[in-house]
Amino acid sequence: MSELRFDPVKQKWSVIATERSRRPHDFLVERHEHAHGEKAQINCPFCYGNEVHTPHEIYAMRSFGKKNDANWLTRVVPNKYPAFGIEGELKRSGSGIYDTVTGIGAHEVIIDTPVHSMRLKTYDRMTVYNLFYTFRERVRDLSNDTRFRYIMPFKNYGLGFGTNIIHPHSQVIALPVVPNILKTKLKSAKEHYRRKERCIFCDILEQEHKDNSRIVYENQDFIAFCPYASSFPFELSIYPKQHAHSFAVITESGLTSLADMITEIFHRLDRVLEDPPLNMVIHTSPPLNYRPGKPDFWHSIKFDYHWHIEIAPRLTGYAGFEWGTGFHINPVRPEEAAEYLRQAGGI
Amino acid sequence: MSELRFDPVKQKWSVIATERSRRPHDFLVERHEHAHGEKAQINCPFCYGNEVHTPHEIYAMRSFGKKNDANWLTRVVPNKYPAFGIEGELKRSGSGIYDTVTGIGAHEVIIDTPVHSMRLKTYDRMTVYNLFYTFRERVRDLSNDTRFRYIMPFKNYGLGFGTNIIHPHSQVIALPVVPNILKTKLKSAKEHYRRKERCIFCDILEQEHKDNSRIVYENQDFIAFCPYASSFPFELSIYPKQHAHSFAVITESGLTSLADMITEIFHRLDRVLEDPPLNMVIHTSPPLNYRPGKPDFWHSIKFDYHWHIEIAPRLTGYAGFEWGTGFHINPVRPEEAAEYLRQAGGI
């Protein structure tokens, strides 16, 4: 089973993923494959008719037929090499100065669409709707498991940027601990709310509206802008305009509006950057069923946290400077990035 | 001038580097170049005789001759596209919810050796000694500038992993703020010292010694091990065995011992992973001349902080999961990695 190990100096968890265990030679093979593009996929396991080549289906959007049939719109299966295992007991242990938690969690793959060669620039509103509908269903379902402290849907797009399979897919991960990045966000939000009785994210949206130089696109329910302190060139944040702590509570009408927003952003990114590799993450509140010992903390999240989506095209690297400082060097001013994306025009 | 911008939610600085300013098209060119290897270097600016093609020399190890002559052993020049500028006033300003600091700092390139095609696996002790001697001289010199809150020497190795130039080189960066990662480390160290009157790093070294499963190599003055919560496969930490807060205080005899250690590690990494791309960072204490308002904090660093070197081969990616959580997924147990590196044998 995988293990989460805590670094007492960096105050940071690492996942030692034994299911993915690899020997030195495996990395050489991967470097070679990476340099020579995608592995030949004769039978793509994510295409219609190859359902037997994935682990057993967890969820699917389909209007008829039974589990593991073809004719689905989206399909969710366990990751074949999961970083976290769904079975087993959550155990916390210590050894001297070090802490460990068993790698209990979920690691699921969402197949976005049956169309093998679809690129983000050809995603239509219905494809995006189906994907985010599926994200919502998985977050809702996984929230019922009280072992999980955080659930994160995300997408790695572009060969070599977190994926080696070309067939469009995303992921959902459920974790037994609250990750550092979320902890910091929750803490900032809580501190701001305590002092001002206002949501820090709502305050940011208001300032972005007034300033107007970083906004890329907005519709009735959502706003997209290049964040003031963007770590990456053409980085984007997307927020619901109405305060809401959790992505899980989004309605069908909200999903329709979100589908418009995301499709718009994918198309604009393609126009400006020609089908760039990217990562997309949904930052939602931790499931509220987790409340041991800290009832106030979890109760107040509804007021002080505001869910959002972050998208980062992968144009710059992650090397010694970023690793050593935690900073990123971004060679494009967010105001300029926003201007390019505004002028790129709609779908 | 570049700007540091602070994200009030993530509590994290980003560097908006205008000297490196790029337009969307530039990224396409880079993606193309990345896919097709190194740019043709007819006149490598880092080779003997091409000294005029770099900005004016800051420092060099040479036994005779004058500035910008050839016949150097190592040579330090300003980065041609610096993320930080040495000239100008350090200004802190705010705009609503956002904070900004002018991008004052230093961004230097160290040419490790005159030998254009030297790889880490062919670094001998003298080459490593010269490099670290140069690191020390630059840290000492930059520490005199009271505008700088942190100085970090580091190395990106491998085309596409933070560098596009094959001629062996490293970097030193001086920052006007203390980076998040160091802040967390300082805080953990201080908290541990306050409770136990012991250095947390010395405690870790003691536990690693007792456990013995993650130690790779040690000599009289240094110890190298794969850290318990390694974020990356075959990650290594190197510590001086005697407590010392700052790399700047290392003696010539210490440098000789360090050169043995680093050469040993480079060779073993090559034996196990065949010349892997890697990042190396020296984590030293902030310069102690900075003490405004917090005399105790800066005074106690001598006792609670312990300088060290981190090396991470770049075998796994940085994608949505890492970006969204701050965790890394490491598919190799540090105990196994240490075993491979131990068995790889010495130089």
From TrEMBL, chains A, B:
Protein name: Galactose-1-phosphate uridylyltransferase
Galactose-1-phosphate uridyl transferase N-terminal domain boundaries: 2-179
Family of the protein in this entry: Belongs to the galactose-1-phosphate uridylyltransferase type 1 family.
Domain of life: Bacteria
Catalytic activity, EC: 2.7.7.12
Cofactor: record remark: Binds 1 zinc ion per subunit.
NCBIfam families assigned to the protein according to its UniProt record, in alphabetical order: galT_1
UniProt KW Methyltransferase keyword: no
GO biological process, one term: galactose metabolic process
Binding site for Zn(2+): C44, C47, H116, H167
Active site residues of this protein: H169
GO molecular function, one term: zinc ion binding
Organism ancestry: Bacteria, Pseudomonadati, Deferribacterota, Deferribacteres, Deferribacterales
InterPro entries per record: ADP-glucose_phosphorylase, GalP_UDPtransf1, GalP_Utransf_C, GalP_Utransf_N, HIT-like_sf
Cofactor(s) essential for the protein: Zn(2+)
Residue stretches making up the Galactose-1-phosphate uridyl transferase C-terminal domain: 191-309
Key words of the record: Carbohydrate metabolism, Metal-binding, Nucleotidyltransferase, Transferase, Zinc
Organism: Geovibrio thiophilus
One Pfam family linked to the record: GalP_UDP_transf
Matches recorded under SUPFAM superfamilies: HIT-like
